[in-house]
Amino acid sequence: MIIAETLFRDNNNGSHVISSLADVQLGTRTVTRRVSALSKNSNAQLDKDLDTCRWFSIQCDESVDSSKELLTLIPVKTTTWGVDIYNAVKTFFVKNKVPLKKLVSITTDGAPAMVGCRVGFVAYCKNDPDFPPLLHYHCIIHQQAICAKVTGFDHVMKPVVKIINSIRAKAKQHRTFKVLLEEPSVEYDEDLLLHTEIRWLSRGRILKRFLALLGEIKQFMHNREEDTSILDNIDWLLDLAFLTDVTEKLTEKLFKIT
After folding, report:
1. SS3 state of residue 129
2. Structural domain boundaries in the chain
């Protein structure tokens, strides 16, 4: 890409050529090799951090967030009772010589298998003499996800996700949109982000980027003769702006806590 930008920077079609090259997919072996190298490097860094840190906390969940430090994925093949989760986690800690004495807190969702006072995962950990006295927290992401279910803003999110998917679903359309963002008149040159259902607070970034690129999105849809009536609806735009502000504040709060 560095060579392409150097050769085609001053070319009339340079931006299109560079954009096309950026969309070329890597070979399967290259991707596999890079993923393997990244995995080994991440594991090595985490092992070093666990050895040198004074304390550490863990978060156990059925769904994972790739932006966090991921220690491991443990398959639970049969039942998922608290004792099953506890046995799987304890086995991993012992096998990998994780220093349990440094563990100070565990964060989970509110499922009975996790927080049951007698047979929940946390209860088993607290009753195990190999575990030190520890704190337990309810994951703030799950709290906000519960909040999301009662906010009643599906009329905002569904059109936003539909429009984003229509732009990013096909490589040619996505390249065309990115070329539009490279025009000198465009103040915000960041691309649209895909929505991640696993983590509700990802909506904050999605909506913020969508709002920043609203003018370019409308222009792109006009060029394709698509219906943009919802993007001209003042009431809908006010709800979009409101939900963007709310989710952005919640995301800021989360990052301050973590």
Report:
1. coil
2. 1-50, 53-138, 147-257
